[in-house]
Amino acid sequence: MKSMILSVLLFFISPFVSNATVELENKSLTYFENPFLLGDWYFFKPPHIENDFDVLHIRLNSDHQFTIEMIKVEKNTADSWSGEFQLSPERILFKGDEDESHVYHYQVSHNRLYLNGVEFFKVVPETYTGAWRSQLVSGEDIMVSDVQNLNLFLGSDFIFSLEVISSTGKRNQKIGYYYFEDDDLVLLYDEGEQESTFEINENALELKNEQFGMYALLVRD
Fold first, then answer.
1. Nearest C-alpha neighbor of 218 from the set 172, 164, 155
2. Which one is predicted more confidently, 88 or 19?
3. Are 83 and 66 in contact (CB under 8 A)?
């Protein structure tokens, strides 16, 4: 099974032969070496290519664990390979459970990953995306800052906009990129970053940030 998945990767991606990898200490989500790498990446087989799979899925986690799935849509089946990955600024090494490893040159943006030039797309669940407006905003620091309402937009392209409205109607907007893992959401913008824990239940989004003393309950707009 594992050798089959590797052969598929090698069919589309010429291996970049190198032993130059860097073992980096596991850290929290905001301190991960390259946080844009985190998440679910998909390569969709072009119609003119004959092969046994339809979709290649790579999941990269902040604990440096990976899963690669070769998905057959019609049969609703998937062959998988998992293990640990290591990063250098330009290369990623996949090391399987039985010590088999492969190194590839990578480039990444907020929603695109290139492994030796092959393009993978990053996917966000539909339940996360869209416009959210606050029903409740609370917290000591929030009240001191005179924040009355929040409007948050999470795009399917991993671009966000956050509008903060004061009690006097003054508006301040931040636009940037976001990424997430489990219940951790990070908003990146020119002036810095903001990390919050979040939970989505149906059409309600809860945001909590202990650093800024903030709690917000938002609903779909």
1. 164
2. 88
3. yes
